[in-house]
Amino acid sequence: MTQQQHAANPATQRYQAIDAAHHINAFLDQKALNQEGPRVMATGKGVYLWDTDGNKYLDGMSGLWCTNIGYGRQELIAAATRQLEQLSYYNTFFHTTHPAVNELSERLFSLLPGDYSHVIYTNSGSEANEVLIRTVRRYWDVVGKPSKKIFIGRHNGYHGSTVGSASLGGMKFMHEMGDLPIANIVHIGEPYWFAHGGQLSPEEFGRKCAQELEAKILELGADKVAAFVAEPFQGAGGMIFPPQSYWPEIQRICRQYDVLLCADEVIGGFGRTGEWFAHEHFGFQPDTISIAKGLTSGYIPMGGLVLSRRMGEALVEHGGVFAHGLTYAGHPVAAAVALANLDALQREGIVERVKTDTGPYLQKCLREVFGQHPLVGEIQGSGLVAALQFCQHKPTRQRFANENDITWRCRSIGFEEGVIIRSTLGRMIMAPALVISHGEIDELISKTKLAVDRTAAEIG
Ligand code: PLP
């Protein structure tokens, strides 16, 4: 007997019917979904969600890795209301600005480690990475190296769903739709030791993957390569934590060939690994940082592209007009919510707690519970993000041929057990809100265990 019930709630049926009639949902087969009917999420509080049938879920994915502060925080709601009353909209075009966006910028740069000077605000992570393409090319024009146009991304990297950001990403099935990638974007391998490491140790494999970047730069010509773009840990592409040897070698190569190092921190930013930014966890210093999600804890859309002082000052001093602007970028209400979110994260020491308390606790419990599990070949993660690699045969790291079906099934069972965990490329992923307590971590793990055990039993 599973915990969750599906009552024939008229509200659920109504919303499912409207959804089926009018909505194209994200990343799924709409026709298949229409037969099944989506869950209709109605309420959120802390780390919990309730659907319109009254089922309660522990949201082990903080929405889409974004509600870092948890659901329903009154300070963020109050900040939005105050700002809506004061100045509901204005922009930063044509010689204007407003207090909210400036208060946010000051706070953002007080949190950023290293020498960063400017930010271009956007409404999403995809837009941050679209802006990245134009800004990086503009930078190289301005500093007199206009031939540097090519971006190098990684297979299975994810940088968003718009034309440029999906091109930077390395998701094959996305590229197959819409003739992507666009010109001058190429990809190298992902640092996924479990799948591709063969007989190499993780550290040897990490260096080898990084050296693929060097080989690609030499093949294309360093005078043609603008930037390397990657997530510090690869999120949607399987929550892959690269071996420790990877990032220092990538940084060395980028510096040696004057290739910009662009970190997509849309998931990793704002405390996920126990550092404010994930590149701090891995010990490298990017030239640009793409941000979104945790910036506002998902309460309202906002993203941005942070630039190193070298880039920001070159663009400002020598760039003249940058012909770029988004009507809602730096929106006052989003900025006020972001500031309230950062206030709460700082005031309550939440990122520090992820580093010293809740993060280590989650990681320890996962290893205790799943370390010897027959279905789990590897456990990766740090802070409040983790992945369980499913596999058929641990000693040889053999994966299931139908691994995506298996992890998708595990995710569905998770819903039945009252926990939301994500399935991606043969791995089960969790990234709960950063406010999660020890008791809630216990619940997350015990329900995940039920889901993994039931999946294992079904496979037989
Ligand atoms: N970059 C990364 C690393 C992401 O994980 C995502 C979304 O999951 C994006 C960019 C795109 O962000 P958005 O969905 O806000 O456009």
UniProtKB/TrEMBL annotation:
Q: Does the keyword Heme apply?
A: no
CDD domains annotated for this entry? OAT_like
Q: Which UniProt keywords apply?
A: Aminotransferase, Pyridoxal phosphate, Transferase
Single GO term (MF): transaminase activity
| Gene3D superfamilies the UniProt entry points to | Aspartate Aminotransferase, domain 1, Type I PLP-dependent aspartate aminotransferase-like (Major domain)
Q: What Pfam families does this protein map onto?
A: Aminotran_3
Give the family this protein belongs to, as stated in its UniProt record: Belongs to the class-III pyridoxal-phosphate-dependent aminotransferase family.
Q: What is this protein called?
A: Aspartate aminotransferase family protein
Organism listed in the record = Vogesella oryzagri
- Record lineage: Bacteria, Pseudomonadati, Pseudomonadota, Betaproteobacteria, Neisseriales
